[in-house]
Give the backbone structure.
Amino acid sequence: MEHELWLTALFNNYLAGLGNAILSLVGMHAENPTRPWQNWIVMELFVVALLMILVAVLRSSLSVERPGSIQHLFEEIYGFLDYQSHEVGIHHTEKYINYFGTLFIFILAMNLIGIIPAFESPTMEPAVPAALAVCTFLSYNAMGLGANGIKYLAHFAGPVWWMAWLMIPIEIISHLARPLSLTVRLYGNMFAGEQVISVFLGLVKPLVPVIFMGLHVFVALVQAYVFTALAMIYVSMATAHGHDA
């Protein structure tokens, strides 16, 4: 059994009934009904709560004349993601920037929470990257249908109609491989980074692992960007057929 974080222990001690009820709604049952909450679920909920509080604080202090440091940070993130969206060829980025921003900030926050010794990164559990990958898969296909209508399905047949018999299976396999690729990339890098930090924390003095924590921050940022950038590329490919030029 995995080591239970203090926050997970609180959930299991006081909210075990709620956890079992939620699992039963989706047709699942906990191995240990007295401890239904797992670290990755609790940490994911904790990150969501932190982001909601941050957004509430930010919204109450928004200002055009005197923007604060948090507002500046979010404006920079928005500007960067908007620029990247244009760079990969997305038209009307205002339709999709909300998803990209949510994806980037959520993944980054989950990656970074593991730096705190009392917590763990939810993204080092395969279920979390897999869920994000499936959401991205469903989202870019929905965006493609929204931009092109039923004509979106025509791109699976390829540019030449008489090659459709070959291109359709290839395109389907290619699209189905994307969620797997997104999942393995994010999970593998975050799990490896977490293990490296844990090993060095146990071997050397507390000051030395600061270097590796800095590396963890870098990996967390890069992986959040890579996941979001790939989502942008998929959206660009899905929506491009709806534009003339």
